[in-house]
Each structure stands twice: as C-alpha cells, then as structure tokens.
Amino acid sequence: MKGIIVLTTACLALAQAKFIFESPIPVREAQGLEKSTRIVNGHPAPPGRFPYQVWLRGTPESGGDRACGGSLISYDWVLTAAHCITGIVRFTLTMGTINRNQPVFLGHSTHFIIHPLYDRSHLNNDVGLILLDSPAPQNSPYIKPITLPAPGRTSETFLNYRATVSGFGRTIDIPGSGQSHTLNWVDVRVISNAECSAIYGSTVIVGSTICAIGADDPSQNPCGGDSGGPLTVQENGRSLQIGVVSFVSSSGCTSGRPAGYARTTHFIDWISQETGLTFG
Predict the structure, then answer these.
(1) Catalytic residues
(2) If you average pLDDT over residues 218-243, what whole number do you get?
(3) DSSP H helices in the chain
(4) pLDDT per residue as tens digits for the range 231-267
(5) CA–CA separation, 155 and 170 (whole Å)
(6) What is the DSSP string of 126-151?
C-alpha cells in the first residue's frame, strides 16, 4: 500500500493549488519506520486485563508467516482486519496470555470471511472474521469475549473519548524482526473524521472509519503487527470495542499522525449476519 497518494480535486479546482495528503499503510506493514515499532510508547499488559486479545499467525498462499492481532467476539469467532486475512490459507490463534509463547489456548482456523466492500487501495471497510475450528474454552478467567456495540449506534462518534488499543506489535525497527513476545497497550484519544480527513483525505476517511491519536503524547500509536487488534472504551464497567486497528501514516508510527480504525458500529449488522451472533 506504500505510495498511495490521495488528491482532493475539488479543492484543486477551487483554489488552484495541489493538496497531497498523508499516505496510509496497513499497520502490519509498519516496520522500519521509527525507533520503536510496537504499541509505541505504551505499557506492558498485566495478566487478565485483555482477555479478549488474540494473536494471529497466518500462513499465506506464498508461504512464510504473517502476524496480526484480533479480538474474541464469541468463543467461536474472532474479529480482525480484512488486510490480515487477504491471501491467508490457515491461522493459528493464541489466546489467554500476555506472553504469546505461553498460550492458555491455541486455536486453528481455515474458515475466514472478508467484508465484501473491503477496499485495499484506501483501506475502507477493513474488517474480517475468523471461525475457530474448535471453540475457545469457557472456563478460563483469561479468555473472555469482548463486548460489541448494539445495533442502532451507528451515529455515535465517541469523539474525544479516551480509548485503549492493545497488541503484540514489533519492538525494533529492523525489517523482518520478530513480534513482541509480550502484550502491550496504550491509551489514545478519538478525534473527528473531519480532522482525520484533513490529513488522509476523504477517500480514505469515510463514515465507517474512526481515528485516534495518542492520549498523552501524539507519538503513542499502534504499529507493525498490531493490525486487526481492538480499540476499546470503558462502558458500564466493561470493555466495548469501537474499532479494529487498520492503518497508520507512511511517515511512521511516531510521526504524530493519527491511526485509522474500522468503526465497529458500522459493521454490527454484517457481523451478526455472518456469525449468527446478536449484540447489545
């Protein structure tokens, strides 16, 4: 996705000037861009804080491995980014742990679904679903599904909410280096789509996109390997997933630019249709 340039031709015609927006890239590709490619400037997760966190190791058709994040939305289904699934033939899913080498449960899957309107050029509708071959255990305090918004909440923007993003992203800037062995998290602040569109353009930032920037420092962001992971807020004493990690700026994860997420309120009906689950 590198090198995507979005032009606002309407403004060009009106102002006789060229506006070149930031280029978004899938978070899984964000490596070697800055000094700390992970949940940058974040914190190590304590045991049990993120029982819905999933680490995905996918095997592409071409061979090798691809690492991403995801969230357990039931004991059978995992929500992730569409770009994490594209070209994958099977997944191994690590759950219930803050150390990916010590899983409470190791799941497998060859059944996944990409949103039919996924646009890889602009990273619109960047959501996908993975069906586990065998359900995750329901008797572990370290494995619990995340709460998704109820239908009818599409108009909620969560503007200025303090949210949390978590994942096992990269820790060094050497291309090809391994993922973090431990789970990290950071708080971010939700910004308006208008503010985000001024940076990435209106073809990237659409109604189903939500953007956020570091809550305490603009350099706080998800980064390489965190794709597909959950963006959550606290509501009624529980974690509510409002986004799926999608993209960062090609300028780097610590560039001060916001990260983009797929807005879960826009996909509840589709998720329900594909999984048979109900929410709210």
Answers:
(1) 83, 126, 227
(2) 91
(3) 9-15, 82-85, 193-200, 268-275
(4) 999 999 999 999 999 998 887 777 889 999 999 999 9
(5) 34
(6) --EEEE-SSPPPSS-TT--PPB-PPT
Tell me the two tokens of residue 70: 């995801």
Phi-psi region of 142 (alpha: psi -120 to 50; beta: other; left: phi over 0): alpha
Tens-digit pLDDT profile for residues 174-194? 455 556 789 999 999 999 999
**Segment (H or E) for 218:** none
Residue-wise pLDDT tens digits, 31-82: 433 333 345 557 889 999 999 999 999 999 888 888 999 999 999 999 999 9
Burial environment of residue 48 by CB neighbours within 10 A (0 to 12, 13 to 18, 19 or more): middle
Q: Is 80 exposed, middle or buried (0-12, 13-18, 19+ CB in 10 A)?
A: buried
At 10, is the secondary structure helix, strand, or coil?
helix
Residues 239 and 236: their CA atoms lie apart, in Å, by 8
- Per-residue pLDDT at 30 exceeds 70: no
**Over the stretch 159-168, which tens digit does the pLDDT of each residue have?**
999 999 999 9
3-state secondary structure 49-86: CCCCEEEEEEEECCCCCEEEEEEECCCCEEEECHHHHC
Residue 2 tokens read as 């590198």
Round to whole Å and give the CA distance between 147 and 238.
Answer: 8
Q: Which residues, including other chains, have CB under 8 Å from residue 199's CB and lie 6 or more apart?
A: 21, 22, 249, 257, 258
Tokens of 117: 């309107």
Least confident of 137-141, 198-202, 252-256: 252-256
Classify residue 72 by burial, with Cβ atoms within 10 Å: 0-12, 13-18, 19+.
buried
State whether residue 14 is helix, strand or coil. Answer: helix
